[in-house]
Amino acid sequence: MNATFYILYSNDADKYYIGHTTEPIKERLRKHLSNHDGFTAKYKDWTIIYTEEYATKELAYQRERQVKAWKSRKKIARFFFYF
């Protein structure tokens, strides 16, 4: 089963959201933008800014946990967006 690690960004909130999914990434974004409870519910301007594909859900989840463990917005931005 293929899975995707992804990072979303909300300009209004000036925040990142880090996750993984086995759904098509566009469908997952649609769900983030729909009416639901959760971290992404408050803002409706989330955009996909980064993705990585993995062979399994477990590997994508490991990557999500790795990046979330950094707990540094600057480190995440530097690693993924400033080459």
Describe the structure.
This protein has 83 residues and is α+β, with helices and mostly antiparallel strands. Helix content is 39%, strand content 29%. It contains three helices and three strands; from the N terminus they run ββαβαα. The chain has a three-stranded antiparallel β-sheet with strand order 2-1-3. The mean pLDDT is 90. Belongs to the UPF0213 family. GO terms for molecular function: endonuclease activity. Keywords: Endonuclease, Hydrolase, Nuclease.
The CATH architecture can be named as 3-Layer(aba) Sandwich
Please state the oligomeric state of the protein chains shown: single chain
- Side-by-side strand order of the widest sheet: 2-1-3
The CATH superfamily turns out to be: GIY-YIG endonuclease
Largest sheet: 3 strands, antiparallel
Q: What's the order of the H and E elements?
A: EEHEHH
Keywords: Endonuclease, Hydrolase, Nuclease
Family: Belongs to the UPF0213 family.
Pfam family, one: GIY-YIG
Domain GIY-YIG: 1-77
